[in-house]
Amino acid sequence: MRIDLHAHSRASDGTDAPAELVAAAAAAGLDVLGLTDHDTAAGWDEAAQAAEQHGLALVRGIEISARHRGRGAHLLAYLPDPDHPPLVAQLARILEGRRDRLPQTLARLQGLGIAIDADDVHAANDDAVAPGRPHVADALVRLGVVADRYEAFARFLNPGRPAYVERYAARLTDVLALVREAGGVSVLAHAWGRRREEVPDAEDLAGLAAAGLTGLEVDHQEHDPGQRARLRAIARDLDLVVTGSSDHHGTGKVDHDLGCNTTDPAEYERLMALAAEAARVAGRGAERPADAASRRAR
Ligand code: AMP
Ligand code: ZN
Ligand code: FE
Ligand code: FE
C-alpha cells in the first residue's frame, strides 16, 4: 500500500485541479492520497468524486498557516469537520490575510518598476481560494520577468527580499486545539524544512504533543537524512505518528513528485484510528467521508 499524505491542488498553489491531482496520484501507483491545500477545504468534494472513480482513498486535509515562537509553522489537519464554526472562522481570517497581502505585494513589485497587476495574478490561477506568493511568482513567469517560481522567490518573494510582505497566521497552539474540537488530528509539516537550526527542538515538540499534536512529517524533501533520523527518534520518544509525503505542487515545485516520500501503512492506520477517536470525542457520530474509501483500499 503506497500512501502520500500531503499534496496541493489549484485550490491553493498546486498546478493541478483536484480531480487531475487524484488522477495523477492513481497513475503514480498511490493507494492513499492526502489533499492538503493551504488554508482551505475547497478542493475536497471534487477530489473525493475523482477518488471514487479511481478507487483511491482520499484523506481530506488542510495545511493551516500558523506561527509558533515567532516562526512560521505549517500544520496538516486531517479529517476535521470543515463546517466547525471556529475552524471556519479561523480559516476565513487566514484567507483574508492572504487576500490583503496581494495588493501590497503587487505595490512593492510595481515600486521596483515591474508592470504587474491583480489581473496578471488571476490569469495565472483564477481557481485559487488561497492566493499565495506562488501565484505572484507564476504571474512574474508569464510576464517574462523570471524563469520560474524559484527565481521569483529568490529575487523578490522570500523574507528579506524586496516584495516580501508578512501576512496573518494563527497561533499554532490555538490551531491544535481547534483541529481537536473539529474532530480531526494534526501533523506538523516539514518541522525543520529549509532551516539551519533544528527548531522546534525535542522539548518544544513535547509541548506541542501535550497541546494536541498527533504526528510529525518526518520524510519530506526539505529534511536531509540526518534530520529525518533525529526527528524519527523524537517522534518515537513522544509517541507521535510518523508520516512521509511528497508535498506535491504539480509543476510548481521540482523534486516533489507524488509518492517521492510515503507513509508507512502501520503509521497511517494509527493516524486514522486516532482520527476516528478524535471524531468520537468531538461528538461526530456520523461516518466520516474518507472511511468508506479507505476501507476499499485495504
Ligand atoms: P505563501 O503561502 O504565500 O506564504 O507562500 C508560501 C508557499 O510558497 C509555500 O507553501 C510553498 O508552497 C511555496 N514556496 C516557498 N518557497 C518557494 C520556492 N523557493 N519556490 C517555489 N515555491 C515556494
Ligand atoms: Zn504550497
Ligand atoms: Fe508547507
Ligand atoms: Fe505543503
Which properties best describe this structure?
11 helices; 8 strands; binds adenosine monophosphate; 2 domains; binds zinc ion; binds fe (iii) ion; single chain; eight-stranded mixed sheet; TIM Barrel; DNA polymerase, domain 1; alpha/beta; 298 residues
Describe the structure.
The chain has 298 residues and is of the alpha/beta class. The chain folds into two domains: 3-91 and 168-297, TIM Barrel (Alpha-Beta Barrel), CATH 3.20.20; 101-157, Orthogonal Bundle (DNA polymerase, domain 1). It is built from eleven helices and eight strands. The protein has helices at residues 18-27, 44-54, 85-111, 118-124, 133-142, 149-157, 172-181, 202-210, 225-238, 265-281, 289-297; strands at residues 3-7, 32-38, 57-68, 71-78, 170-171, 185-188, 215-219, 241-244. Strands 1, 2, 3, 4, 5, 6, 7 and 8 form an eight-stranded mixed β-sheet that branches. Helix 8 links the parallel strand 6 and strand 7 (215-219). The protein starts with a strand and ends with a helix. The mean pLDDT is 95. Bound molecules: adenosine monophosphate, zinc ion (ZN) and fe (iii) ion (2 copies). Residues 63, 74, 189-190 line the site of one fe (iii) ion. Adenosine monophosphate binds next to helix 5 and helix 6.
